[in-house]
Amino acid sequence: MSGDEPQTLLILGASGDLVGRLLLPGLGRLLRDGAGRMLSIVGSGMDDWTDERWRQRVRDAFATVDAVAGQAGASALGARYLQADVTREEDFRRLLAACQGQVTIFFALPPGVTARACQALTRIELPKGTRLALEKPFGTDAAGAEQLNELLLRVVPEEQIHRVDHFLGKSTVLNILGLRFANRVFEPVLNAEHVESVHIVFDEKLALECRAGYYDGAGALVDMVQSHLLQVLSLLTMEAPPTLNARELRDRKAQVLRATRLWGDDARASTRRARYGAGSIDGRRLPAYADEPGIDPSRGTETLAEVVLTVDNWRWAGVPFRLRSAKAMAATRKEAVITFKQPARVPDGLTGYERANQLRIGFGPDRLSFDVNINGPGNPFVIDPVALEAAFGPGDLPPYGEVLRGVLDGDPTLSVRGDTAEQCWRIVEPVLRAWRADEVPLLEYPAGSTGPENSLLTPDMHLLHADAEV
What we know:
By secondary structure, the protein is α/β, with parallel strands linked by helices. The protein contains 14 helices and 18 strands.
């Protein structure tokens, strides 16, 4: 963000949890650390807030990242709030009249409200170059995502649409791409000839944490697997792009997602769902998910989702990709694990090599671990496993700061393209249908446990890092 042209970030849904917890702190870091373009912050929502209450929310969020002076302080001081119903054309016109210069509209709203707001925008002449930034989920199913994309394209061109997924912060993206394509030792063996399986796991100790309004209508499959974890899968499996140009990178991601589908096309055999019951985590007692405030137990919303996928192309055909996300678990695990096949033959006389080589990529903090078998101390005929570990370099900004920089600079590299959003829904739609029809039982696990028995993850995954904070 540089230059003298003023910019306005119009945040819709300004009083929501996501804005205060993630969006504003990320923006504060960006303004604190970036070049100082003039940025006006306009918040809007249905709540009857004053300018001062909104400014205080901005200041409080900025203070959490020590962004209280300079451009960040000036932007917080000049922040404005306007009460509005953004599904009404006249209200939206009033909001846009309060903006100046380059306008970015950030929809921190539920998908249904976002669609109705965009419908209102189709009847309004927007300031030149207006950008739209949307939070996931992008639609509610494949047909809804397609309809939303058609609607958005009636408002602005695709290159001005930023579908935000903070998992695609630049550091995480470049860490995976750098590891794969800048190391000849890895890239030639990342294929079905050498890889036994791939796991992408996002287990967290956090439970519902007052998010019933959103989470009970989404569940773990839509909240995490359909969006974040499929994006990670695309980065791990795509072919090398010629450059990191936005179009070429996003073309490669879209290509591999088109080849991705449910293992065996059988949701009953290749998926599992569960929700947490009463239990305790780190000494804190938790009620069962069904007893949490604001939850409708009859919905059968899952807090643990596991799916097994195949990437049905030349490179990956036959390799199972197991994706899991779960809440209220005993330990936090956020990692992708590539398990290699055993050697074709080991000379007679060597023992202890039964544990396969594994390459782990950790998310938050970003780290790398590579398990290898070597001759250990003592008897040289006995092989011992060791882990070679390294930390990825931290990015200049937190993930939300990185994606906001791309949005405000008009760089779509880290945004989800419309066709990719549709493919992610296509992949999980058979699972959603089967679960809604109760073809897959809803299991239960105690909060603070490792989940229900008989996981779709292979047993060695439980043994290796079940208690690790990754």
